Amino acid sequence: MKNSIFKSVIVYAKDVFFGFWSILGSCLTAFPYILRIGELRKEVTEGYPDPVSSKTADDLPARTRGLLFNDIDRCTGCHDCAKICPSQCIKIEDEPGSDLTKRWVSIFDIDFSKCIFCGLCVESCQPNSLFHTKQYEGAAYQVSDLVASFGRGQLTSEQREKWALIRKSDQNKKGLS
Amino acid sequence: MNTQGTWIVSWFDLVGLPKDLPHWVYTLVSLVCVYLFVVIPSAVLMSYLDRKLTADLQARIGPNRAGYAGVLQSIADFLKLLQKEPQFKWGLRENLWLVSHTMALYSTLAVLPLGSLALLVDTEMSAFLPFWATLVLALGTMLLGLTQASVPGWFGGIRVAAQTLAGSFPALIALVCAGVRAGSFKWSSLVHSQSFALWGWAAISNPFQTVAFFVFIISGLVILAIPPLDGGLSQSDIHGGVSSYLHGRRLSLFQMGRLYGFFFWCLITVVLFLGGWNLPESLVSHLREGESWIMLSFLELTCLLIKTFFLMLVVTWVARVNTRVRVDQITDFSWKVLSPFSLVALMGASLWAGWRAL
Asked: Which pLDDT score, from 0 to 100, does residue B10 have?
């Protein structure tokens, strides 16, 4: 009876039956999802925040990593963000400013076509001038439009000379005291 | 004018066209009508329902932008695909694919059984014509894969061919089962042998027909590579298979062909096994006495399409809650499970029919 044809037919029929049974079982398991009963009725995905889903940008989580913004008044031009950036998307040019503690940031460009929104620059920023906004719609028609500029612009040579004099007098004062 | 022509003539009356036109004009107009008012709305509705049901089963939201609750999403997608620019030039073999695909699609329109009055081709062999068209559709898909000078295309094409071969045999035997019960392969007599009531359906009337029904619908999924048995087209190692290099208009043509094949197979399954367009006897005789042909064909069509959509949704449900099956498992399943079961069903159905004839 060990290798009889009847036995193999029974085994075959059993396999087919259990295959059918398992498919039926999986279909019945999914039934609450169709009828939306109990805990399973809530969708896991979230609607895109815009008027259609009646959500706003403020409904986003508190630590959303949106587009970056640099408050240039607080920025010291220390280059920490540019150094830690893994995709090297921050370009900074600076020169000595009117006082010794702060530098004049003439160019501060963030290239969002390269940015991976890892947030390392925000963490490393000492004066807390760089932060994530909750803005999430950054699409543009040109790649060059994806560069956000926060710099104060280039200094004129007159200003440069004037500030050099101020700095020198400041230094002299310090040296005297 | 045969009986099949009466329904289109009554439609002509409604829109005010002359009655004494040649036969081919009626045929052409009815084909266009079937395509515009049955096939395209069904495709739009089904692709929407499919996406919503899939989203429900996967705890997603699904389309919710175009129109109320996203009802216009299929149209929006179609319009978007039309705008895309082609990347490659069409070769001879791609044109061959297009011709065979289109031929298969539009040849089935003529034999589509849509009601007792809406029958253009109702011969002794008409139940086999869609079967032939399905094979041509699969052949076109295979050719498309083999034309692409790429690994996904070649392997996808060969796999589609393997699936088609594996699925054809049980499908043919199951089709014969339905014919044995009705005593004919005419659409009209296939449907006439069943009734509106549930116990009059072929699939429920005896256990062998039930087996034949399951074999027929599943082997159709194998032939046309429809989920969950779409291993030949959608397996991960050939990333997209035949359709991996299609985009824009060509992709929309391909998708429409697949959707139409699915719809079409479910439609003939309903006609063969699930009661077809049968309405309650009293209602039919009342409508026939009143000669309200338009009402009769409309009600029959509605009945048929509701059953078809329900069958399609059940298949989608099964597809979404089960894993995708590998292509060798599909062919294996088709040869080793579907084929023996179809043969058993044929033997049983023949004996049953012989017993009833005694």
From this structure: 67
CB contact under 8 A, B317 and A52: no
CB B35 within 8 A of CB B298: no
**DSSP bridge partners of A95:** A104
- pLDDT top residue among B55 and B25: B55
pLDDT score for B1: 44
Decide if A85 contacts A120 (C-beta within 8 A): yes
The DSSP string of chain A is -TT-HHHHHHHHHHHHHHHHHHHHHHHHHTHHHHHT-GGGGS-SS---SSGGGT--GGGS-TT---SEEE-TTT-----HHHHH-TT--EEEEEEE-SSSS-EEEEEEEEETTT-----HHHHH-TTS-EEE-S------SSGGGGEEE----PPPHHHHHHHHHHHHHHHHHHHH-
A28 touches chain B (CB under 8 A): no
Buried b (16+ CB within 10 A) or exposed e, B170-202: bbebbbbbbbbbbebbbbbebbebbbbeeeebb
Angle at B141 between CA B140 and CA B146, to 5 degrees: 95
| Residue with tokens 């062998």, as numbered in its chain | B208
Q: Is the pLDDT of residue A41 over 70?
A: no
Alpha carbon distance B204, B274 (integer Å):
8
d(CA B35, CA B44): 12
Give dist(CA B255, CA B221) in Å, integer.
15
Residue with the larger pLDDT of the pair B91 and B166: B166
3-state SS, residue B165: helix
CATH number of A68-176: 3.30.70.3270
Please tell me what DSSP assigns to residue A131.
E
Q: Between B59, B318, B337, which is nearest A44 by CB?
A: B59
Which of the two residues, B110 and B209, has the higher pLDDT score? B209
pLDDT class of A92 with cuts at 50, 70, 90: very high
> Residues B77-114, buried b or exposed e (16+ Cβ, 10 A)?
bbeebeeeeeeeeeeeebeebbebbeebbebbbbbbbb
Question: What residues of A are in contact with residue B318 (Cβ under 8 Å)?
Answer: 23, 27
Contact B59 A16 (CB under 8 A): no
The number of residues in chain B equals: 358
Q: What is the pLDDT of residue B334?
A: 94
Q: Is the minimum CB–CB distance between A34 and chain B shorter than 8 Å?
A: yes
Question: What residues does A103 pair with on adjacent strands?
Answer: A96
Interatomic CA distance for residues B280 and B59, integer angstroms = 40
